[in-house]
Amino acid sequence: MFGTVTALAVLVGCAGLTVEADEQSGSAAAASTVGSVQSESVADQSATETSAPATTEPSTTTTRPPEPRSLTIEVHPPEASVSLNTADGFSAQGQGPDPITAEIPAEVVEVTVSADGYQDYHGEIVLDGAPGATTEAVIWLDRPGQLVHKLFEVEVGGAPKGVAFTPDGTEVWATILNGSGVDVIDVASGQVTATIDLDQGAVEVIFNRSGDTAYVSQMQTNSVFEIDVASRTVKRQFDTKGAWTKVIALSFDETTLYASNWIDDNVSEIDLATGEVTRLFSTVRTPRGLYPTPDGERLYVTGFDSGELEVIDLASGDSQVLHRTGGSMRHLVGPADGSVVYASDMTKDTIFAVDTETDEVTVLATTDKKPNTIDLSPDGRVLFVSNRGRNNPESYYLPGPEWGTVLLIDTETGDMLDAIIGGNQTTGLEVSDDGTLLAFSDLLDDRVVVYSVPATEDLLNGGGGRYQDHLTELTK
């Protein structure tokens, strides 16, 4: 795995070791050790004097070493070893479990991290801040064969249900079901930087395309909150006129908001100009997933109770059930052209595909246990699926006997491209608008995890990534 570690740097204080950067002086190498870190530089700095002809005043040119910048690296697994190198010959080595610190006489340092049973990491860290400042980085190693790369995990409020990237990819918003609203995660630092208080827990969050407005659903109050992203303040609160509001979706022209109401078996249509509910569509039982087609003509709805897939004609309000599995249809997503809609069924462990021209329903792939949230790469070629894992036999509120997972599926063939072992009940999931980042939540671990995603071509040519290996790691 190659990359540049700039996204997880924050200023902190730490102890370190100081060495002098290499110059073209040819002097002997220096070495020193602090804690678990050893460092070497190829040569010491030197100062030279150059005298002009005797008719002029003598002048002196002094070459000074670059002002050092402190670096602290935390590695996972903690037993991993770290090697640091700069272009001018500085090098340092260290090993966990304690964070590794060094004084770097450069702005960019090459990093290699390795541990038995993991892929090596090779990348660069750009040292932020002025000379003398400290940069902290966290590097996670991936298991052999893994194609996506773990960037960070962060603890959030109780039971993170949904996650969504801001359109610019700089933040992840996590709805906290057992909390009071939304936690905002800064992708650069990997930390929660704000909490938006909505008095009670939240279910799902989406953004408009410009990224200046977010919409958050709340079951207990049958509401959708319209939030100004920059100020983190609520602009409006919409009463959906339904009960137990869950999934929300914007029309393609962003003039209308749709909200599924779990208990009332209907979907609210909200005019965003007025904030008023214009229609309530009766649906199949326990509606959840929503997908308004880009042409604005139809709305697809999933029914969780009996595994139904329904389509509503938005002009007439008439509806038709296209498919019934007897399972638990949960989530819907489609590509930008609206040519197909994908649906997850939690009971049947299956992803279905709907041809929106013919409304023919086919099976795309079978998944791990309890697939729930799904999302697409921007090119529509890769489907990402979060899977909660097998339920605890006593209660699904308790951790079950299997780990949650995320699967990456080729939408043309149904083949598995990669797999991630998550935590307890991997639930919320989203891919950033540019397709380079993946976020998911582990519901019962109160955690959000972010990965980087390689190009689609690399996924297609990756031999299935860790899919086969992950099958042997599902059971705890």
Which terms would index this structure?
2 domains, Methylamine Dehydrogenase, Chain H, Immunoglobulin-like, single chain, 2 helices, seven-stranded mixed beta sheet, disordered N terminus, 476 residues, mainly beta
Describe it.
- The protein is mainly beta and 476 residues long.
- It has two domains: 2-22 and 29-42 and 65-140, Sandwich (Immunoglobulin-like), CATH 2.60.40; 156-471, YVTN repeat-like/Quinoprotein amine dehydrogenase (Methylamine Dehydrogenase, Chain H).
- 2% of the residues lie in helices and 47% in strands.
- The chain has two helices and 38 strands.
- The strands form nine sheets. Strands 1-9-8-5-6-3-2 form a seven-stranded mixed β-sheet, with no helix packed on it. Strands 11-38-37-36 form a four-stranded antiparallel β-sheet, with no helix packed on it. The chain has a four-stranded antiparallel β-sheet with strand order 12-13-14-15, with no helix packed on it.
- It is globular, with a radius of gyration of 26 Å.
Provide a concise account of the structure shown.
This protein has 476 residues and is mostly beta strands. Helices cover 2% and strands 47% of the residues.
Mind sketching the topology for me?
Layout (H helix, E strand, L loop, with lengths): L1 E4 L24 E5 L2 E5 L27 E8 L4 E5 L5 E5 L4 E5 L3 E7 L6 E6 L7 E7 L8 E7 L4 E6 L5 E6 L4 E6 L4 E7 L7 E3 L5 E6 L4 E6 L4 E7 L5 E6 L5 E6 L4 E6 L4 E7 L4 E6 L5 E6 L4 E6 L5 E6 L4 E5 L6 E6 L4 E6 L4 E7 L4 E6 L5 E6 L17 E6 L5 E6 L4 E6 L5 E6 L4 E6 L3 H5 L6 H5 L5
Parallel strand pairs: 1-9, 4-10
Antiparallel strand pairs: 2-3, 3-6, 4-7, 5-6, 5-8, 8-9, 11-38, 12-13, 13-14, 14-15, 16-17, 17-18, 18-19, 20-21, 21-22, 22-23, 24-25, 25-26, 26-27, 28-29, 29-30, 30-31, 32-33, 33-34, 34-35, 36-37, 37-38
